[in-house]
Amino acid sequence: MFYDLQGQPNMSPVVGMLFSAVKENNQRLKLITEGITQDEVDYKGPDNSYNSIAQLIRHLLYVDLNWVYRIKGESLPHHVKEQYGPMIDRNNRLPMIMGMSVSTLMSDYEDVIKLLEDTCTQLTDRDLDKVVHFGHENEKQANIKWGLWHIADHSRYHQAQINQLRKWYKMCPSS
Description:
mainly alpha; two-stranded antiparallel ribbon; 6 helices; 2 strands; 58% helix
């Protein structure tokens, strides 16, 4: 396989290049989660003290969904918040997700990536400089260009955690 951040044909050059980074990371996430069992998806690491793979995928999905709506200049609809949220629970941790299959999680996440792709086809490279607010209280600012880069970077960060959970799971006596 040849790797390249070549833009998408239906997107502006820089938008397409940034979306390619997101898309490549999403494909990588699919590969590293392929064929895992439900026990592994729900595994929370040694001493049950880490976020599970399910929690991490749902977190990525929800963060990216928030970015899609930010990029579109729209608020996240209430029904979407209800379906996929909240971002954090009342203890400031990722919400618990148990018993949800990796295929369901990844299918839902694929829908978000498709929505992002559709949104990116509407952007010009000039749009990338628009400033949006983000953070738990919308206290931070970034431009859309940074937001697209962040989606890709954030995915890689949590993929490293997923890989670590998978290693621990394989070493776990009960697996």
